[in-house]
């Protein structure tokens, strides 16, 4: 999947992946896609809830080698 911006939040503990994701998505235009890489196990629930509450769309996510990758479309 093609992303307009990639955020590497690997190694960061909650709430930093959310804080950095919020900052990064604010730099995008509506409809653009942010790819977030995280290793925090709580990131899946946190980013899913954050995207929904912020009017964004979690397009997809995958877990590979203990790294979670999320694609979030800005609302």
Automatic annotation (TrEMBL):
Q: Which CDD domains match?
A: SirA_YedF_YeeD
| Protein origin, superkingdom | Bacteria
Instruction: Enumerate the InterPro entries for this protein.
Output: TusA-like (IPR001455), TusA-like_sf (IPR036868)
Q: Where is the UPF0033 domain?
A: 7-31
Q: Which Gene3D superfamilies match?
A: TusA-like domain (3.30.110.40)
Q: Tell me its family.
A: Belongs to the sulfur carrier protein TusA family.
Protein name, per record: UPF0033 domain-containing protein
